[in-house]
Specification:
- By secondary structure, this protein is of the alpha/beta class.
- Helices cover about 35% and strands about 25% of the residues.
- The chain has an 8-stranded antiparallel sheet, with helices on one face.
- The protein is globular and about 80 Å long.
- Bound molecules: fructose -6-phosphate.
- It is an enzyme of class 2 (transferase).
- This is Glutamine--fructose-6-phosphate aminotransferase [isomerizing].
Length: about 600
Amino acid sequence: MCGIIGYTGPLEARDLLLNGLAGLEYRGYDSAGIAYFNTASQVRIIKNVGKVAALRECVKKTAEVSHCGIGHTRWATHGGVTDKNAHPHRAGQVTLIHNGIIENYHQLTEEYGLGDKLVSQTDSEVAAWVLDAVYRDCRHDPLAAIGAFVKKLAGSYGFCILFDDRPGEIYAVRNVSPLVAAYTRSGAIIASDLTALISYTKEYFVVPEGHIVRLTPYKVRVYDMDYNRIEPEMLEVSWNMDAAMKNGFPHFMLKEIHEQPEALRNTILPRLAGNLPDFTADGIPDELFLDCNQIRIIACGTAMHAGIVAKALMEPLLRIPVTVSIASEFRYEDPLVDGKTLAIVISQSGETIDTLAAMRLAQSLGAPVLSIVNVKGSTIARESDHVFYTHAGPEIAVASTKAYSVQLAALYMLCCRMALTRGRCTKAQAGQFMEDLLAVIPAMEAMIGQSDHIRSFVRHLIRERDTFFIGRGLDYAFSLEGALKLKEISYIHAEAYAAGELKHGTIALIYDNVPVIAIATQDHVFAKTISNVREVKARGAYVILLAKEQAQLEDGVADMELRIPDLEDRFTVFPIAVALQLIAYYASIGKNLDVDQPRNLAKSVTVE
Ligand code: F6R
C-alpha cells in the first residue's frame, strides 16, 4: 500500500528518492517524506501531507546534498493524515519507513513505556522506538538489533532503516510486505515495487522474508536470521521503462485500457501449441485438472470479479462445482476444502494480504493452489504450488483494467485445458474455443475505436447520483465489474443487479432519469433481459443498452445503445469490459477527478 524506496551510491539521493516516490505514488498517496544523511553525516527528515509534488517543493527549499536516504509515500492505516504521522519516523538513533501493520503496537507501547515519547499516532513510530532500544541493547550491531527487533513484532512489515552512526548504509527487513532490491552501476537501491528500480537496472531480487538486507554504496548483502550471508535469486525485469510511463496518454488508466489487446496477445500466444492451450512451459501438469472434484476461486475486488465470470464459464463446461470466495471472507468461514479441491487464487499484484492468507489456509487444508498473478516473484506467486503468469506489464492506475482482462484470458485458457483433459470437449471443440478467444482481441480494438461514442454516455451519468448495471448470466457477472469501476474512480454510487432480481426489491430505487446500464449479450436470456429493460424504462430510467451488432432491438427500448462485435456469447466479456472501463474513465474525467489515484484507495492492498 505504502511506497518505499531507499538508495545509497554516487548519485544525488534526494532527487533519486523524489523521482522514485513519484513513480510509486500510486501505491499510496496521502503524504510523503524522505530521510537522508547530509554531507555532515547527519540524518535530515523532510515530510508532509499531500503528494510527492508538494514534498519536492519543500525539499527544494533546503540546498543540502546527500548520497544515501530513504523515502515513503503513505496510505494511512494507523492515525490520520497529518505531517507527524507521515514517514520517515525517528526514534533516538533510528530513522525508518514502514509498509504494513504492526498488530501488537499497543503491547509494545506499554512494554517499552513509550506513552510520552510518541509524537505520532502510528504503529510505525512505536516500531522505531523499539528498534532504537534494541539497537542500544545490542551495542549498535545493526544485524543483531534487527534480528532481535523482528522477534518482537506481530504483523506485516517492510522496513528501510537508517542508523545515525552508520552513514551511507541502509538496512531493510520484511515480512509479507514486498521489497525488491538491486545493486547497480549507480549504487544500491531498494523499493517496494520494481517501477522504482527499472530506470537503473533490469536485474533485481525479491528480498526474502525473514532476511536482513544491508545496502552500502558498494554492495548489497542479504543475511538470514543467524546472520549468515545468502545469495538471493536474481530475476530479470521483463518490461522496460516505457511500460511504466504514460507515453503520451493523459492518464495511466487510459493507456492501460489501450494496452489490453497487446496484453492478451502476450498472455495467450506463448501458451498455444497448435491451436490448443499448453502449459508445459508454466509447469502446470494436467493431473492438477484431473485430480479435483471441485474448484474454489479466491480473490479480492476486480480479480474476484474475474473469478465470477470464470465460474459462469466453467460450471456448465466442466460439470463440477466452482465456488468464488472473497478472500477476506474465505479466511473466516471454515471453508469446505480438501485435497480434492483445486484452489485458483487470482491476484494482479501477488501481494494482497487477504488473498495470500486465504491461499495459505487453502494449502493448509490440503488443496493444491494454482495462482494467476501478474507480478513476477511476488509472494503469492512464490508460495503457490503452480503459477500462471499473466503478461500485462506493470499496471500503474489504481483501477485495474488490463490485469482484469488478462486474468480472464488465463481463466478461459485454463477452463479450455481442463475441459479437454477431463474429456468434456474434443480437440476440435477446444481448438474452436481458442479461436473464439483470439477473436476477442480485434473486438476489444473495435471497442477502443468507439471511445468517442462511449464518452457521449457519461454526460448523463455524471448529472445523477446513482447508476445501476443490470444483466443476466454472464452479463450479470460483467456488470459487477462495471459497477466497481464506476464507483471507484467517479464516486458515483453504482450497483449491479441480476436483471431478473430487480423486481424483488431494487426496482424501488428506480426514479426518473436514473441511468441504467443494461448488458444483453447472452442470446438465451436476451429476450428476458429486454423485458427487464422495459420494466425500468417504464419507471423513468435512462437506459444505456450494450448488445451485440446482430441483436434486433425495437425503437425506443433504450435511450442510448452501444453495439459490440458479434462474438460467441461466452466471449463478449472482453469488449464489454473495455466499454465499461471507458465509461468509468470518462465519467471520472467529466467530474474532473484524479483518475489514476482515486481517493482513499491504493494499489496493492497489503493490510487486512
Ligand atoms: C479495482 C482493483 C481492486 C483489486 C483488488 C485485488 O480496480 O484494482 O479491486 O482488484 O484490490 O488486487 P490484486 O489483484 O492485486 O490482488
